[in-house]
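Q: Sequence in, structure out?
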Amino acid sequence: MNAQPKLGVSRAVDRAFATLVRIWPADSREWALAMQAELPEIHNSQESLQWLAGGIMSLGKAWWTELFRGGNAEGKNLTPVKRPGALAGVTLLAALALLILPSAHQGLKAVTGSWRSNQSYYAYHDELMSMARDAESHGDAKMMAFIAMRLGPPSDMIPLANKAVAMDPSLIWILSQAHYEDYNNPGTRDWPAKLEAWDPGNAMGYMVEAEVRQGEFNPGFKKPYDAIESDPQWMEAGRKAVEAPRYDNYRDRRLAFDREVILAHGITDPNFVAASRFTRWPNSDPASFYSKRLLSEARLALARGDKETAKRDAWTVVHFGELVRGHGATDMERYWSFQYLKPAFEILQPILVSEGHKDEAAMLSQETEAMTLRYFAGGGFSSWSPSSQGWIVTSSVGMNLGAAFSIVLFAVLLLAGLWLLAARFADDLASGKLFRMACWTARFAPAGLLVSIVLLAASYWPSLAAIRSYLDYPVNSSTVRSLTESAGAVYWLPENFRHSQTNSANHQLIWLFVVVAGLFTVAMIVGRNMINRAPRVKAA
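A: Exactly. Output:
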């Protein structure tokens, strides 16, 4: 009987099965050839696909046996093993030479640092405290202040800040850089007076005063959140902040100071540099609550026909909102200013219209609309530009995978090198499966190491450029935004992976590592069998 012509699906199965045979472990390839020999007898497309599926499952089992049970169970002869040659040595030297690049060695340090910690102030506590003790022993007040602004626990941060200010009174401004919850500490009781005397008329001193009072009024934050509104001292501090003639949260001073210390001490750890993007200032609640009370009084005054009192109170809030908007160094502060300006404008607009100042009223309306579009229709504020999200994710995946593979490949290369070195002095080690694996690793892993380091260096380059821009050019919103984005790129993948157990949206990151590890394992098995094994010739 003449054989029926094969359909397109069956021909595709023939080609796919031929590929399976080529990558099948040599020790069991006879089984694959036997399965392939049965294909000409199958003419049904569905049966052909089922046969191919069985072949794929058998291939997986064969690889598993090869990897975990040793393969070559029958003791068949293998092709002579090839030892690593000059090309492997040159490739390894090239890979190691790439670590000279700042984007490679600084990137490796930054990425491995992100694995062992998170972005909190507690991440490098022990290292920071060691640096603080060294700075104190040398009387280096600036370094002590630099470290104090990076410490998390108040028990460590507050004494160090006080020591730095005692050594150098020009550093008093660092007392405003604590977390607002840190002010519930006896060591901070005189901070408001120091700040107000050093920089009179700045709202920040009064805001610190309010936070210190909150620590005294509500120790441990055991009372209701809004209980503090009943405290006259706290509300008085809020009044002084709102009516202050100036607003400066010292953020620009902080960034310039950090850069000075970083350059003076030659600090290269990207994690310490990027921490400059954290600027801490007291809670805005005192000013917010007082402003709301003032505007409430303005509305009551307007209801009883007292326009002058309503205008006075509303313009007082507008004055503070404009100070924050004009002198705030971040988008967050400009967003914050909108919460003062919008309700005050709503009170002033009808008053201006009634007094014949229609142009001024229209201007306030336009300002309100513009701010609404900027902060609400536009999605509020963000620490980085919307267009940066793509490169942050891409760079983070690239640099983290590049660093991970670099470490793994270097480790297996080191083990392979030690085995081959020992084999020169012990003949028993110069044969067998482990010796063949060491030779294969020493021949091909250098190329993988080279590619991994190139990937790491290329992925980290934008972050390194952002750090250099911050250190080499005047501080501005662009350099600080780039610095924030650089830290986001380093930490994006580790932070998402760390929280993937509680955030189902990031479970794909676990599968990313599983897939990469699986591909790496398959490449090792397939490569070893295709390169180091002699192909079985099908019997006639």
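The chain is about 70% helix and 0% strand.
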